[in-house]
Amino acid sequence: MNSLHTSSPSGLPPGLPRIAVLATGGTIAGEAGDAAKTSGYKAGVVGVDKLLDAVPSLSQVARIHAEQVASIDSKDMTPTLWATLCARVNALLALDDIDGVVITHGTDTLEETAYLLHLTVKSDKPVVLTAAMRPSTALSADGPLNLLNAVTVAASKASWKQGALVAFNNQIHSGRDVVKTSTYAVDAFRSPEGGALGWVQDGQLEYQRTVVRPHTLQTPFQIAADLPTVEIVASYAGVSRVAVDALVAAGVKGLVIAGTGNGSIHSTLQQAVADAAKQGVVVVRSSRVGSGHVMRNGAAPDDTLGSVTAGSLNPYKSRVLLMLALAAGTPPKYMQSVFDTY
Fold it and tell me: Is 27 one of the annotated active-site residues of the chain?
């Protein structure tokens, strides 16, 4: 892993924070042949040095140390890259002369990476993810301002002990709560239940609420490249049990059901879920709805099926937590407590 860009401009105020910027690719590093087009571009082709050069005012916010960790479209994110990224974040934050980390990321899986880092980073220092909905070559590209705001958030003492954060479109979100809600809009990220933590604009930021659930140093979770296999199965009209049976036969350790409404599971899937649980597969009921909570329903169906409920976590974040909990050796009887806590 090579350092590509380090700025230490003269004439800056003494004690300016030093922020590490880790680039992983994504639309923020995308290029298209036509500036009027915001689709049909190639993601992850612009290097971190060019991303930083496009935001010269960064030099008034922090001293920047930058590294290119990956150059991918985030739809292709993997646990192996998660492990590499988390290890590098933890190594940098352990250094006395690094005050925070910013990660440029694709929007497709940003919410999953943010939650994973929220649970596995072992530092009180800020970790801030940002991204863009328009490639760097587009008219009114949103990446440069998002990057400037992310560094501003990471450089602020107010961002310490907040876990992983997402700075996007002038808002600051918790990595646990944030989800992508639009395929095209520059305000694509929301925290449906609790709302944004605060805002950042023109070098100023304000937190209007803080993170309550345990995270970072308060969790037992570690990331590894060989996380237990957990898959997601949706419930819908006319669903069969074929997918559940095939995944169990393939040796999955956990299943997340993206249920309808309050995580309800089609009757056809219910027996498949019960059979999977009897074979030692941990099953989590989440919802495909997009907001709200999946509540534990006691004997029907959770005690009967042997299922765990996800609370406010969507299926994709539920998968992240279940993989980490299984990797930590959490017994099935304590899995509901894990979802209630984190």
Answer: yes
- Strand segments (E) across 99-253: 100-104, 127-130, 164-168, 171-174, 179-180, 189-190, 198-201, 204-207, 230-234
Q: Give me the pLDDT at residue 6, please.
A: 39
Cα separation, 157 vs 270, in Å, equals 49
Model pLDDT for residues 148-166, shown as the tens digit of each residue: 999 999 999 999 999 999 9
Domain spanning 3-218, CATH class: alpha beta
Annotated binding site for substrate: 74, 107-108
Annotated binding residues, written as ranges, equal 74, 107-108
Model pLDDT for residues 73-108, shown as the tens digit of each residue:
999 999 999 999 999 999 999 999 999 999 999 999
78 is catalytic: no
- Half-sphere exposure of residue 171, counting CA atoms within 13 Å on the CB side? 17
CATH of span 230-341: 3.40.50.40
Q: Would you say the CATH fold of 230-341 matches that of 3-218?
A: yes
Marked catalytic residue, from 27, 113, 120, 216 = 27
Residue 94: CB atoms within 10 A of its CB come to 11
Strand partners, 260: 264
- Whole-angstrom Cα distance, residue 131 to residue 88? 19
Q: What is the pTM of this model?
A: 0.93
- 124 has pLDDT over 70: yes
For residue 308, the cross-strand partners are 284
